[in-house]
Design a protein that fits this description.
The chain has 318 residues and is α/β, with parallel strands linked by helices. The chain contains 8 helices and 13 strands. The protein has 2 domains: 225 residues, 3-Layer(aba) Sandwich (Rossmann fold); 54 residues, Arc Repressor Mutant, subunit A. 36% of the residues are buried.
Length: 318
């Protein structure tokens, strides 16, 4: 018999106190995996690079959040050119008063990295084993695979590999990922594109949002308090750009629409009959919630179902 190790619960050593161990205090817990998410053009990559500079140098992230576990950083920037990455890192170093030349941020220069292939998973694992970074940043997730992001079973395999990497090498993993466009009516974690596996996977998650010209940051942790709507701005010093916390007042967010209203708004936007699956994709809601809302809207006479799907309006008189 090959029995798994086990121990009676009462015999497990008790911790003297339950405290969160931080990589970057308030932003990322030690050896955490998670998502840095947001809609396009919300400065997600700038925040990822700010985390890289801070962990690599020990300087406070965003000039406010202390680094508790400094160490080497491994970065794969899949969308930006290497020259752009260098320029941005230099700008952040200038803002943080950090020496760029000695900064231990290692950039993967391979043109592609496919974590849905055994070959590239092994290459990444071998690179991590060689460098032993404290933090791995992969930006963005969409460039790392050709899986169906809405298929939980497919996405779970990719996330499981990154969790295995974290446990094997005791490092933190930041996975930059897009939120759906026009998702301000949803909670940040629910606004992420693809399967809900992504939201549930993270030990620490960061969400960037833009309301007009105002950027905000929301933090979410599995074992610590979260923060909502931290105001940020992209500041410029000469040719250098970096994120900074601002004291500008944030407009109150609009009231979140009810599930019924979200489904009705999706049907109005679609402008014609649509399947429940198509409505779910547009609303960013669970299938069960969409079906429940459609049933209630039909009961109220606001939605009609025919052979082509669901649409707004009342049934035609016989």
């Amino acid at each position: 018999m090959n029995v798994l190790p086990f121990q009676r619960a009462s015999e497990i050593a008790a911790e003297s106190a339950i405290t969160t161990r931080w990589l970057v205090e308030g932003l990322w817990s030690e050896q955490a995996v998670g998502i840095l998410g947001g809609e396009p053009k919300c400065c997600k990559s700038f925040l990822a690079l700010d985390l890289a500079v801070s962990v690599a140098s020990g300087a406070a992230c965003l000039r406010r959040y202390p680094v508790r576990q400094a160490g080497r950083v491994l970065l794969f920037p899949a969308e930006d050119s290497l020259s752009v990455v260098r320029r941005r890192l230099q700008g952040i170093c200038a803002a943080a008063a950090v020496d760029f030349e000695s900064l231990p941020v290692e950039v993967i220069t391979a043109p592609a990295l496919r974590l849905d292939t055994e070959t590239d998973r092994k290459r990444l694992a071998d690179t991590v084993e060689s460098l032993r970074p404290a933090l791995l940043i992969l930006d963005p997730m969409i460039r790392l695979h050709r899986l169906d992001e809405n298929d939980a079973s497919q996405i779970a395999l990719l996330l499981s590999f990154l969790r295995e990497l974290q446990r094997r090498f005791q490092l933190a993993v930041v996975l930059v990922h897009h939120a759906r466009k026009d998702s301000n009516g949803s909670r940040p974690g629910q606004a992420l594109r693809g399967s809900s596996e992504l939201h549930g996977w993270g030990d620490s998650n960061l969400y960037m949002r833009r309301r007009g010209s105002q950027l905000t940051l929301t933090t979410e942790h599995r074992a610590a308090a979260s923060q909502d709507d931290i105001p940020l701005e992209l500041t410029e010093s000469g040719a250098a750009l970096s994120l900074a916390i601002t004291t500008n007042a944030i407009d109150a967010p609009p009231a979140e629409a009810s599930p019924l209203d979200r489904v009705a708004q999706a049907l109005e936007k679609l402008g014609g009959p649509a399947s429940a699956q198509r409505i779910r994709e547009l609303c960013g809601m669970r299938t069960a919630s969409v079906c429940k809302s459609l049933a209630e809207l039909a009961r109220q006479g606001r939605v009609v179902r025919d052979g082509r799907g669901y649409r707004l309006g009342r049934p035609h008189a016989a």
